[in-house]
Structure formats: C-alpha cells, structure tokens
Amino acid sequence: xxxxxxxxxxxxxxxxxxxxxxxxxxxxxxxxxxxxxxxxxxxxxxxxxxxxxxxxxxxxxxxxxxxxxxxxxxxxxx
Length: 78
What we know:
By secondary structure, the chain is an all-alpha fold. It has helices spanning 12-28, 33-68. The termini are far apart. The mean pLDDT is 84.
C-alpha cells in the first residue's frame, strides 16, 4: 500500500511517483472500500501539491522571462 509522506519536504517527482503507485493500487481492484477512500483522498492531496508546484514553477519561469525581456532558446547538453 502507498505510504503517506510529509509533502512539505517532498519533491515534485516523488509526488508523481506516489500518485502513480496509488492509481495502480486503485485500478487493481484489490483494496477494500475504506482503503480505497483513504488512498483516493491521499491522491487528491498529491494532485493539489503537484498543481501548486507546477504553478510556482510557471510563475518563476515567467518572472525570469520578464526580467530578461526576451525568450531565449536553450540547448540541453547530453
């Protein structure tokens, strides 16, 4: 079963992995009703956490673009 984690210290990627695990558990159909409700509730909290992280990242990127005055393409080094 999924583990409840302190979200204030959680990274976005960890939250997504936890969410994927919960979804897999819910889709398996092996959880009883009470556990399903608990897992669903935890998934909703993780979704809210991820949305906040993405919104924060978007605001940061927008501020950087505005400070720079232009959008500059960048290349990822492999």
